[in-house]
UniProtKB/TrEMBL annotation:
Protein name per Swiss-Prot or TrEMBL: Ankyrin repeat-containing domain protein
PANTHER family assigned: ANKYRIN REPEAT PROTEIN, GH09064P
SMART domains reported for this sequence: ANK
PROSITE patterns membership: ANK_REP_REGION, ANK_REPEAT
Positions annotated as ANK repeat: 112-144, 144-176, 177-209, 210-242, 243-270, 276-304, 309-341, 342-374, 375-407, 408-441, 442-474
Top-rank taxon, per record: Eukaryota
Length: 615
């Protein structure tokens, strides 16, 4: 017996026994009779068990016949949000049929809270909007506070906006975050929409939760025509957001030339600062917007007016690396000697950031290559700190003094070593007349610093250039002590190879090299020093049972370190600082402090120090 021989009731029973939609579908498609017999069951099953996926697909693609068939088979189509889907996709006939289907609500919302009218308005489907309005669709907000008018204005659908306004849509209803239809249109540059909204009474002064007006949004987006329109309707060019931003400041920061032109032509104050102290001039200078700065200068903006922390337009432009901006400002009389609150001039700032072309321009215009910041840093120091070889070469060629030290007495070579820039060190070592053993405030040479930070490459460079490994610092320590104290075995091996160290010789703390090797906690380093002593002082009595310290102080790059013993003992432990010596950068660990050592001057009060240089 074949399937065609079975009674209809049995075939339906078989289909109802199947629990997978794909199986029912395959069964129904086995012949025409089965398909006609089971199609109603298949639609009902899909609606009940698959969230009416077939109808959702039909709504997205506009398949009206699928909807008709579902209705004819008894599927309760009103239980599913099909109308917003069809409206969003512009299927007029599908939506029309739905609206004629009993139980379908014109204001039903989809899973995102969008009504059919909002969806159609968002997409600009004029015919659908007409249809839905005729069916008394709600003009009010969706779940996010957006009205059909808001979304139509946001996307620039002029005819939809006109329809909604003529139907009585409220022109001023904001979203939950304060976006009115007018602000949306202004932000996105929809001039005709904005004009229509204003003609229907839209308020140019209404603000969002962050105090943004439509004028702010238009300025931020650079829509000059809308700016002019809004100002003609009374918008306030001096209005400030919650963060203190004026429309002109926003336009200047973004480089919106035409917007800036309109705003200043309409009377915007070019000197009015934001809440953080930045003016349109400093914002545009920092961002490199030369045409904007030209406009502002022509309208009377001060070329030297500083913003927060004393930054002038020229110092900002120098830091940003804009040669054209620097030249423009200097041509208008900008003070090349002006500094920010840290005492850094435009030359120091450009050197710090590696802007060689700006450095060259500033030097050509008379910048002082020897000027210093409040930390005693020169332009050469800042270039050295950041490893800018080309800038350093340019500064040296223009008379920078490589021997000048900062408040710690560190010269450019010391600074390059501490910041791990071997290429820069190598360049400095080629400088004619360089004293390779120049000392800082503590009598420490660049070789000493290289030994302290454990940079074997730079140690080799200094030794090859003839640097002395036997020069002691103010505390009686030679470079080998700095290497051993900080656990740098490779560096210690190099230094011991070129300068044997007597076993009995102690530093000013009364400790030997072997004692420090044990404190380092490194077995290899302890063994190296022990072997060195045995080789060069066979009669030395060594403690054969000496073991490395089990909880040593480890060297950590970028951490604060004691200016006395040079170890990173200040991290996470008690330590002290002098706010006077070394420009306030003298730090001493508790161990050295308890041993009676004080700051360089010896008579300053010390305060607790907390290392915040690393996490």
């Amino acid at each position: 017996m074949s399937l065609s021989d079975l009674a209809n009731e049995l075939l339906v029973a078989v289909a109802q026994f199947l629990d997978a939609e794909r199986d029912i579908d395959a069964f129904a498609k086995s012949n025409k009779r089965l398909y006609s017999l089971l199609i109603a069951h298949l639609y009902r099953y899909n609606a009940h068990n698959s969230s009416a996926s077939a109808l959702v697909w039909a709504a997205k693609t506009g398949r009206v016949e699928t909807l008709r068939r579902a209705v004819s088979t008894g599927v309760k189509v009103h239980e599913f949000p099909l109308l917003p889907i069809a409206s969003d996709n512009g299927h007029l006939n599908f939506a029309n049929l739905l609206l004629r289907t009993p139980g379908v609500d014109v204001n039903v919302k989809d899973e995102d809270g969008w009504t059919s009218l909002a969806a159609a308005s968002r997409q600009g489907h004029v015919d659908l909007v007409n249809l839905l309005l005729a069916a008394n669709a709600d003009l009010q907000t969706n779940d996010a506070g957006w009205t059909p008018l808001s979304v139509a204005a946001n996307d620039g659908h002029l005819e939809v906006v006109r329809l909604l306004l003529n139907k009585g849509a409220d022109v001023s209803v904001p979203s939950e975050t304060g976006w009115t239809p007018l602000r949306s249109a202004a932000c996105n540059g929809h001039f005709e929409v904005a004009k229509l909204l204003l003609a229907h009474g839209a308020d140019v002064h209404v603000t969002s939760e962050r105090m943004w007006t439509p004028l702010h949004s238009a300025a931020n987006s650079g829509h000059a025509d809308i700016l002019e329109l809004l100002i003609d309707y009374g918008a306030n060019t001096a209005a400030a957001t919650a963060d203190g931003w004026t429309p002109l400041a926003l336009a200047a920061d973004k480089g919106m030339v035409e917007a800036v032109n309109i705003l200043v032509a309409k009377g915007a104050d070019v000197a009015l600062p934001c809440g953080n102290g930045w003016t349109p001039m400093t914002l545009a200078s920092d961002s490199g917007h030369v045409p904007v700065v030209q406009i502002l200068l022509e309208k009377g903006a001060s070329v030297d007016s500083p913003c927060i922390n004393g930054w002038t337009p020229l110092t900002l432009a120098s830091g940003a690396g804009s040669v054209a901006m620097v030249e423009l400002l200097l041509d208008h009389g900008a003070d090349i000697k002006a500094t920010n609150e840290s005492g850094s001039s435009s030359l120091l700032i450009a050197s710090d950031r590696g802007h060689c072309a700006v450095v060259e321009s500033l030097l050509a215009r008379g910048a002082d290559v020897l000027s210093t910041s409040r930390r005693g840093f020169t332009a050469l120091h800042t270039a050295s700190e950041n490893g800018h070889v080309e800038v350093a070469e340019l500064l040296l060629a223009q008379g920078a003094d490589i021997a000048v030290g900062n408040f710690s007495g560190w010269n450019a070579v010391h600074i390059a070593v501490q910041n791990k820039h071997p290429e820069l060190v190598e360049m400095f070592l080629r400088t004619p007349g360089l004293d390779v053993d120049l000392k800082d405030n503590y009598g420490r040479t660049p070789l000493y610093h290289a030994a302290m930070v454990g940079n074997a490459v730079m140690v080799d460079l200094f030794l090859a250039r003839g640097a002395s490994p036997t020069i002691s610092d103010s505390y009686g320590s030679k470079p080998i002590f700095a290497a051993v104290r900080n656990g740098h075995e490779a560096v210690a091996r190099r230094l011991l190879a070129v300068s044997p160290y007597p076993f009995e010789q102690l530093d000013s703390f009364g400790h030997s090299l072997l004692w420090w090797a044990r404190r380092s906690g490194r077995p290899g380093l302890l063994q190296l020093v022990r072997q060195h002593i045995t080789m060069h002082d066979p009669g030395a009595e060594l403690d054969e049972d000496m073991e490395p310290e089990t909880n040593p102080v480890k060297f950590i790059e970028n951490a604060c370190w004691c200016k006395v013993c040079t170890r990173c003992t200040v991290l996470g432990t008690t330590s002290y600082e002098c706010t006077t010596c070394d420009g306030g950068e003298f730090v001493i660990c508790a161990e050295c402090h308890d041993a009676g050592v004080r700051c360089r001057k010896g008579n300053h009060d010390l305060i607790p120090h907390s290392c915040n240089r690393i996490a």
